[in-house]
Amino acid sequence: MRFLGIFLALFLFIIFSYITESSFLKEAWNKNDVDTTLHPQQIVMGILGEFRKTIAANLWVKTDVYHHVWIEYSKKGWEENSEVIPIDRLITYFDPSYVESYFVGANSLAFGFNKVEESIDFLNEGIKANPDAAKLYFVLGQVYLRKKHDFERAAVNYRKGINIAKKKYLEASENFKSTDNEAEKTKSEDDMTDSFYFFLDNSYMLANTLTLQGKRREALDVINEFLKHFPNNRTMLDLNKRILLENSWKAHLPPSHINK
């Protein structure tokens, strides 16, 4: 029954998209001075209400399972699966707060199929809907650095990602310490883990980007700021040592699990 509901919702989406894009209907609306600013997905989302989030979650679970099976059997990089891109797009129509779909879809567009501008547009849409998503700023920084070689814009986005991730980590850490509720502790732990990785990755890539610009002092400041919170982090300690020892530095991919 649940999957029947999903099928009906998708069917409604297609029908309403067709109707609202009909030139005949638009002409009729315009003659009667009817507001036509609503996009097809906005109409459908209004009809579906909160059920749309359930649809998005189910689509994501099924897509995630299929995606991992595809990686295992195709032996290709995870960004190269073109079949998940339209599904990621659809998920964000149903639930614009689904950050993971923006994250995966934008990575695939930029690094799997070299659709750089589409990736940037998708990320900017995701950031507008989720301004506190550090991982989206990280991917946007990666696209500007690796695809457009725009160090300035890459650095701007890495800095935004750092500020968001650091704030989230500190808040989650305080929440973890201040509660005895096991469910809240688990959520705080999850938030700490997620924000830590993007605090690390954004910091790591910002330091690399600044070094490529000849701004080694600023790069070392970024590393030292991270080490104030995680003084024993081997990744950043090694990076600090390399920048101090080398006159030039080649930017590497970020160290965490997210680009595996």
Task: Describe, in plain words, how this protein is organized in 3D.
There is one protein chain. This protein has twelve helices and no strands. The protein has 260 residues and is mostly helical. Among the domains are: 1-49; 132-260, Serine Threonine Protein Phosphatase 5, Tetratricopeptide repeat (Alpha Horseshoe). It is flat and about 50 Å long. The two termini are 36 Å apart.
Amount of beta strand = under 5%
What is the H-and-E element order? HHHHHHHHHHHH
CATH topology of the domain at 132-260: Serine Threonine Protein Phosphatase 5, Tetratricopeptide repeat
**Helix coverage percent:** over 70%
Q: What is the 3D shape? A: flat
Sheet of most strands: none
Extract low-pLDDT stretches.
14-36
Give a nutshell description of this structure.
With 260 residues, this protein is mainly α.
What is the topology?
Elements: H1 2-21, H2 23-31, H3 40-48, H4 51-74, H5 84-94, H6 99-112, H7 116-129, H8 134-147, H9 151-178, H10 182-212, H11 216-229, H12 234-245
Notable characteristics:
single chain; 260 residues; mainly alpha; Serine Threonine Protein Phosphatase 5, Tetratricopeptide repeat; flat
